[in-house]
Amino acid sequence: MHRSVLVASVIVLLLRPSMAIAQVQAGAVTEALRSAAERGNAQAQLDYAKALGSQHPDARAWAQHAADQGLAEAWFWLGYHAPGDEATPFYERAADAGYPDAFEHVFDRWLFRADGRADVARAKRYADLARSRGLNGVVSDDAFATIDRCAEAGAPVIPASHRPSPDDQRRFAGVACLAFSEGLGVAKDLVAYRMCLLADDPPDNNWLAEVYANGWGVPRHPRLALALACHGSDVPAELIALVNALWATREQSSLDEPFRFCDHVVSGYNAGRCAARDEELHAARRAATLDALSAAWPPAHVEAFARLREAAHEFFSTRATEEVDMTGTMRAALAFDEEATLHDAFVDVVRKAAGGVLPPRADLRRADAALNRAYREVMGAELDLGTVTHDSIRTTQRTWLAYRDAWGTFGALHFPQRSTDEWKAWATTARTRQLRALMHPEE
Predict the structure, then answer these.
(1) 10, pLDDT greater than 50
(2) Which residues, including other chains, have CB under 8 Å from residue 436's CB and lie 6 or more apart?
(3) Residue 314 three-state SS
(4) Quick check: 346 and 406 in contact, CB under 8 A?
(5) What pLDDT does 379 receive?
(6) 331 within 8 A of 272, measured Cβ to Cβ
(7) How far is CA 390 from the centre of its chain?
(8) CA distance 64 to 76
(9) Is the confidence at residue 189, as pLDDT, over 80?
(10) For 317, how many CA atoms within 13 A lie in the half-sphere containing its CB?
(11) How far apart are CA 361 and CA 366, in angstroms?
(12) What is the largest CA-CA distance in the chain?
């Protein structure tokens, strides 16, 4: 088919004729592309591959024909439709040929989303290539600066004297490293913290970057901290922020404020990781507080309190996952935040009660009636709460009942100024507020 026929066919398609006519014309265009492709026209070969669709068994072969003739866009198309890491060589060929859209994919693969597999020298080579071709706008200036700084930092080589020995590896196997970090109500051992991090397989470079940026148990080593951060990224915006912060303080012998990976997190996934880390620290503090409060109690009271703490943990964790909407990338952070809030409130009530400040008196019959109204309302409503369903509320309610009863038993035993029913009424009133908040969050 002559070029004029092909152009005419495209014009007909753009005019949106009836479905039948459109199908005829689309077929004509496809045949025209095939004819041109068979004659060796590289652009037609790629366009024909696109017309066939990426799932067609012949599409990749036609795109490969175009790529072999030097069509940069064809290399990019092959990469875009290749799975996972198999895409990288195609993107690199497209970038080598100067195709602008390929560079961001190459940078992500070798730096910004590479995590521990980063190859900063390779990312730097493509950054220099982009600039030499006048393609400075393919990524932001901050991204180019980050590539340059990561390349200058080089590989994250941990000094041999800082690495754990085989005995250390065995000592720290399966150990929660936060037990040694700062912030806990126990003696700090930042050397053990570093050894524990390095004993992980593989180590988490973001937490190690904090160690060397802050000089925790080692001399401050800004270049190594920068190299570690550059080999730990899975989110471009986070890496740019981390590198900016480390670069700005690279000449300082000490920091006025600690460098924290979590201060620069913007992704839902890493926000969840940071929330989990914070909660682990807070949980240790809360446990230490409750252990100290109960240390001198009679054994029967300690036993009842242990059962209450266990019931509280079960209810709080269930509430955090079953009555919090778990859609979206921030779901983990939201769940940890809810659970932490409940645990903090629990510790506050126990601490105040131990100091003589008890919850206000409440009538169990009235509290039960209010709870039943709230429960009937939420269970009878058509919910629009994401992952929160009638079944998940019912599941949470069952764990709450055990929590309420444990409060009644322990509260009346250790704080007899309130009866079992009064402690249950207090717990019931708090649960009613939770149920009402599901239906009336503005209250």
Answers:
(1) no
(2) 374, 377, 443
(3) helix
(4) no
(5) 94
(6) yes
(7) 28
(8) 11
(9) yes
(10) 9
(11) 12
(12) 97
* CA-wise closest residue to 25 among 33, 91, 233: 33
* Mean pLDDT of the 192-204 span: 91
**Structural tokens at position 204:** 């988490």
221 pLDDT exceeds 80?
A: yes
pTM of the model: 0.75
**Continuous H helices in 15-99:** 19-38, 42-52, 59-68, 72-80, 88-96
User: How buried is 22 (Cβ within 10 angstroms: 0-12 exposed, 13-18 middle, 19+ buried)?
Assistant: middle
In three-state form (DSSP H/G/I as H, E/B as E, the rest C), the secondary structure along 104-170 is HHHHHHHHHCCHHHCCHHHHHHHHHHHHHCCCHHHCCHHHHHHHHHHHHHCCCCCCHHHCCCHHHHH
Structure tokens at 174: 């399966």
Length of the chain: 443
Residue 303: both structure tokens together: 């036993």
Helix (H) or strand (E) holding 371: helix 364-380
Q: pLDDT tens digit string along 124-152?
A: 999 999 999 999 999 999 999 999 999 99
Distance (Å, rounded) from C-alpha 336 to C-alpha 338?
5
- Given a contact cutoff of 8 angstroms between Cβ atoms, the answer to whether 200 and 107 are in contact is no
Q: Which two tokens stand for residue 391?
A: 């079944």
Q: Are 326 and 387 in contact (CB under 8 A)?
A: yes
**What's the average model confidence in pLDDT over 215-219?**
92
State the Cα angle at 101 between 99 and 104, rounded to 5°: 120
SS3 70: coil
Query: Residue 98: left (phi > 0), alpha (psi -120 to 50), or beta?
Result: left
Q: Name the burial class of residue 255, with classes exposed (0-12), middle (13-18) and buried (19+) by CB atoms within 10 angstroms of its CB.
A: middle
- pLDDT of residue 44 exceeding 70, the answer is yes
First CA to last CA distance, the chain: 70
Distance separating alpha carbons of residues 10 and 391, to the nearest angstrom: 55
| Cβ 224 vs Cβ 214: under 8 Å | no
Helix extents (H) in 163-267: 166-172, 190-199, 205-214, 222-230, 236-248
User: What pLDDT shows up at residue 118?
Assistant: 96
